[in-house]
Amino acid sequence: MDPQQLPSYADVVVVGAGPAGLTCALSLAQNGLSPVIVDARPAAQIVMRATVIHPNTLEDLDLLGCADELVAAGICTDCLTWKSQNEQAIGVIRFSALKSITKYPFSLFIPQHVVERVLTKKLAAAGIRVIRSKKVIAMREAVDNTHVVCELQMESGETLRTKYVVGADGAQSTIRTMAGIRYIDPHTGKIAASEGASRGSLFVLADLTLAEPLPPNVSRDEAVMILTRGGPLALVPLPDAETESQTGRMFRFATVVMPGDPEPPRNPDAAYFQRIIDKRGPGSHRSDGIKPPQIARVFETSRHQAFSAVAEKFFLRAHGGCIVLVGDAGHKHSPAGGQGLNLGVCDAVRAGRDIAKHFQSPLTTDVDSILETYAIRRKEIAAQVIQVAETIETMQNPATWWGIIVRNVVLRLVLLIPAMNRAVAFRMSGLGYREKQ
């Protein structure tokens, strides 16, 4: 059978082949099911997405046999440092303080497409491939051999029947919309991204390389996170052995459009990003002769309007099947703190496990409690992660000059206390969301 040919039936269909969808498929396979993965895109893409994997997520990926390969492909950092505009440390979060409770006492910098490549390879070894150019345009109830199932209609005209649909198709999820599940702003109760819903900061992002040799205050292996009075700026190293020999070390550039800043262009060029580095970046406020790094090449840029949202339900019986949401289909939040991919992957590991448990359980009046428990727990965790991300965003972007002073003093003092430092590292690591085994 052609690996890109759509079957007529599968017990579980995962819609979306990002990290959450691929991880869910792996979890399903590990728990005895053979899912079909469909994705609207014709091919995997190298695009600007998440860059950091935290300890709790690495532990979950270790359960799927992927963590070691990812660690080998990325950059491990056992601390995250925020610096003032004169590049003095304001606060250092030390993940190394967690070494007694996790196998992975560090965060991992790695491009999302490398994560997807490793997951896809692992799936292929299990005989599972992504079927591409399959856009779901409708869901409806159908009868298959006297059993009620969900029938997915593809834009190509094909249909696929299933008992379970995993919506892993992002914040604009077609599956969530067709299931009638609302995407709600947790603060206002309004439809997220609609009029009246709350907004966070406008982020400007780029993947770029810097001219060699790098200035001595820019590391090839450590993130630079500077909180200036003009706004924050981050340069995060992104290793990729397949491209680095041709392009040099790639960095993810991220900053926030502050009040009073001009509207960024739709497609900002290298000169735009260089002006921001010259104003906010490493070397921008030094008097010792070290100058800001120079951009060699910009590969991709984007603007990201942060907003928070959470699905009303993560599990629903609809259109003849069980609809389960994972990743951005279930929640959305500020990129501050790098929690997005992490939350989605952890959703997916548990969704795969619980769908398999539900599938293998006898039909009783309370069998749905398995997936209802998943839904309640993941929604609770999503709300907690949204709070963490919004707190970090607020901390990085005080509205006043005196807010900056207070932020710097409090952050420095709090993180100098070992117990407080460990508590902050524990919260950012995601380990606090671990379920008891």
TrEMBL record:
SUPFAM superfamilies: FAD/NAD(P)-binding domain. Residues 10-388 form the FAD-binding domain. It holds the Pfam family FAD_binding_3. Its cofactor is FAD. Keywords: FAD, Flavoprotein, Oxidoreductase. The keyword Oxidoreductase applies. It comes from the Eukaryota. GO terms for molecular function: FAD binding; oxidoreductase activity, acting on paired donors, with incorporation or reduction of molecular oxygen, NAD(P)H as one donor, and incorporation of one atom of oxygen. This is FAD/NAD(P)-binding domain-containing protein. It comes from Exidia glandulosa HHB12029. The lineage of its organism: Eukaryota, Fungi, Dikarya, Basidiomycota, Agaricomycotina.
